[in-house]
Design brief:
alpha+beta, Rossmann fold, 7-stranded antiparallel beta sheet, 6-stranded mixed beta sheet, 10 helices, about 35% strand, globular
């Protein structure tokens, strides 16, 4: 489990150090203090060998179409949109320090083959180097170099190139704040659990919101698949028709259950749920995270979330929770950490923690 996370030069963060991260970590703060940006940084750290990782944060922000220019979709991850800066990300996990440096390179020498004649024979081709822009990811573990990767874009194609890379990636999932979840991805995850007969626990939790739910099934329709639920109706219906809260809770539970020893990132965790069900929902999320050893990092604006955690979790289970509030001081972001005892005391005294 990740215990701390350092971020330098990523988006609005000059130098941010998050400590005492827990099985469940909630991140709060006013608007534009970088709550969602922390989740994006976690996602990029763990998914950096994916060519689409530097673009994923744009889709999370609702940008359905983007300009196909590196100065647009690469500059946005650097502090002040300045690609001359270097991004540093560093995590501590069980006394192991993993670090990534991200740098923009104006010229990456990509090897290409040019045919001299109209033939498929490789003997009639010659190799040359094509200069192209790239993002360079340099990886180290305990300050020892373990390889690097180069993400290139030639105006049409994103490609990832590797050099001496000898590291593994932690599985990570991102649950966005809006109601539009990836239904196909959810269906695939449920199918994976169904193979091992491990869906009943998911169904039981969803009954917190939909008491009439009896079972869940993945149903394929052409090139698509959806999760259907059996309730008190003549036929099964898509879970998405049972309401935003039910669909979101299902996405979260499926992500946790299929990311054992990994991480699930949740933006604005409270969206879609009435405050009265929050204690039971948070208790169930904690139980699922514990079962699968899956670390949950979530943002929130809600005062009720913290009250509900205290109401829903026992004193022992509250030890698995940390709350971090991000505050903007002039142009820098400063974190304030609340472990369980501090959070309980602050809420009992009516102190502002949002």
């Amino acid at each position: 489990m990740i215990e701390s996370f350092k971020i330098k030069g990523f988006k609005l963060f000059e130098d941010l150090f998050l400590q005492r991260l827990n099985l469940i970590t909630l991140i709060g703060g006013k608007n534009n203090t970088g709550k969602t940006t922390v989740l994006e940084a976690f996602f990029m750290f763990h998914d950096s060998i994916n060519p689409e990782a530097p673009l994923y944060h744009l889709s999370l922000r609702g940008l359905g179409s983007i300009s196909l220019k590196p100065d647009f979709f690469w500059s946005s991850i650097f502090k002040s949109y300045d690609r001359r800066n270097t991004i540093e990300m560093e995590v501590f996990d069980n006394n192991i320090k993993e670090k990534i440096l991200i740098q923009h390179k104006k010229e990456f020498q990509k090897s290409v083959f040019t045919l001299q004649q109209k033939t498929v024979s490789i003997t009639n081709a010659f190799q040359r180097s094509l200069p192209i822009e790239s993002l360079n990811f340099i990886y180290s573990i305990n300050d020892k170099y373990v390889g690097e990767s180069y993400l290139t874009f030639d105006g049409q194609h994103l490609e990832m190139h590797f050099k001496d890379l000898n590291k593994t990636s932690r599985k990570v999932a991102f649950i966005s704040s809006d109601a539009q979840q990836n239904h196909l991805e959810d269906a695939i995850r449920l199918g994976h659990l169904d193979i091992y007969g491990d869906t009943d626990s998911i169904t039981d939790v969803l009954k917190i919101i939909e008491p009439n739910l009896k079972s869940l099934t993945t149903i394929s329709q052409g090139d698509h698949a959806l999760i259907y639920g059996k309730i008190n109706l003549p036929q099964k219906i898509p879970v998405s028709q049972m309401g935003e809260g039910t669909a979101k809770l299902l996405s979260i539970l499926l992500a946790i259950a299929t990311h054992e020893n990994g991480m699930v990132l949740i933006d604005e965790i409270e969206n879609g749920w009435h405050y009265s069900v929050l204690p039971d929902i948070l208790k169930a999320i904690h139980k699922m995270a514990k079962k699968y050893n899956c670390q949950v990092i979530a943002t929130t604006h809600s005062y009720e979330i913290k009250k509900s955690l205290i109401k829903g979790l026992s004193s022992e289970n509250l030890l698995d929770v940390t709350y971090i509030r991000l505050d903007k001081e002039k142009e820098s972001i400063k974190p304030k950490h609340y472990e369980s005892a501090m959070l309980v005391g602050a809420l009992e005294r009516g102190w502002e923690t949002r």
